[in-house]
Each structure stands twice: as structure tokens, then as C-alpha cells.
Amino acid sequence: PPRTAAKLRQLPWTKLAAAQALASPGGGAAGASAGTVWAAAAHRRAGAAAAPDSATAAELEAAFAAAAAGQQQGALTGSAGDLAAASAPAVGWMGSKKQVALVDSKRAYNCAIMLSRVKVPFKDLREAVLAGDDAILPDALVRQFLQFVPTEDEAASIRAHVDRDAQTQQEKDGRLRSLGKAEQFFYEMSLVPRYQQRLEFLHFMQRFDERTAEVRQDILAVLQASNTLVQNATLVAALDAVLAAGNCLNANTFRGGAVGFSID
């Protein structure tokens, strides 16, 4: 780029390495058919000077000359002044019978509402989770279950209550029935190894076909748009002009001499 008498404001771009900016789709050396817009721009101006002529450089100097220190300070002070002026108990659901509550009342209430629409016994739900049975556990139900995964503390306190002083399975069942609906559900699900991971996997598998179809369409759309942009002569010419002007503004800095750029 030509040297200018005045100091110019820099263009804050991220300078791309030549190997990255001019790389071909296969990763080899760039050529006329390389897949980046910067390679297309380089091919377009092959044999021509990339720097602006003297008239264009003078226009850049007039348009982008850095402001004096006093002017910059005044502008900043004004902006700061403008900115300164401008900125001037839940009740748990316990059912009709007196039950032992071991889970937060609001959380137990919301869980009970969700479970009121489930007509499958909790033990059968536990077996369905172990088997990954999506006939009993459709995706909508799995998503609801994921919102009510028992924490370690909840599971420990419920198991301690059920197992305390219980000598037989009948006694355990009796203590379990003394709990609220949410606690009973949490107890059964806490017996499933890696319960949350099983639900997440089941949810992923149930949505797999739908998600891959969505991603496939997105990828095809991006590829088509990218090819259209790279092959657009007007866009390539415009970016080439920005590249030449930016190299003039960024002359003698680490951002200068770029063969391509990106802007965050």
C-alpha cells in the first residue's frame, strides 16, 4: 500500500493467514477453482495491483484521517455525558390423607400434577425405563420426567424413610404408601441405575430421525448459500475493494498485508 502523509484510522479486522484464506476445498494449494471468496478475489485480480491508486489513496486519507487528540477527548466526554444523562410462602399438596412429605412442597405439587395424567403404576414405569420401552414412555412423557429427576439428597432421604426399621418387604411397602405421590415416584425411579442418562438417551433416540432431517436441510442450505456467494462476481469485487482499502488503512501494522480477513 502507498504511504500517506496523515495517520489513518485502522480497520479492526482479523487478518487471516494465507494458507487459511487461499486454501482449496481439498486442503491443497489455492488455484482458480479454490473454494474461498478470497481465493476468488485473488484470481480475479491476478496480474493487477491490489493497492489503491494515488487518487483513491488521497480519498482514503481525507475520509479516514485519525482525529486529533483533543477532538477525540471531546467526543468521548460528550458521549459519556449523554450516557450518564440517559442512565439515570408455598403450600404443599398433601392429598386427602395425611402423608409424609420429604420433597419440597412446590416441587412435589408440580410433580403430582404431572403424574396425575400417568395411568401406569410406578413400578411398571421403572421397568419401562430399564427396558427403554418407548411404547410406555413416549417422548412427551420422557421430557416431563426429565424435569423431575430426583436429586441425590431427595433419593437418599426417601430410601432412608422406607428402609428404616423395616424387617420385611411388606413393611417397606407400607412405609412407601405413607409417602406422597411425588415421593413414591422418586423412590421407584431412584432404583434405576443412571436414571437421568437413560431418559436423556431415550429422548435422543426418539428425536434422532427428526433432528437429522433438520440438520441435513440446514447443511444443504449453508452449502448452497456459500457456493452462491463465492460465485457472485459483484460480492467478490466488493470484498476485494474492502481488502485493498483496509490494507491501505492498516499499512505498517500487524493487520496490514492481508490476503483475507474476518470481522468478529
Give the topology, please.
Layout: E1 14-15, H1 18-21, H2 37-44, H3 54-64, H4 69-86, H5 105-115, H6 122-131, H7 139-146, H8 152-163, H9 169-177, H10 181-190, H11 195-230, H12 233-249, E2 261-262
Antiparallel strand pairs: 1-2
Characterize the structure shown:
The chain is mainly α and 264 residues long. Helix content is 58%, strand content 2%.
Choose one word for the global shape.
elongated
The rounded Rg comes to: 34 Å
Tally of DSSP β-strands: 2
Average pLDDT reading: 77
Strand share of the residues?
under 5%
Largest sheet: 2 strands, antiparallel
Descriptive keywords:
mainly alpha; elongated; 12 helices; 264 residues
Summed up:
The chain is mainly α and 264 residues long. It has twelve helices and two strands.
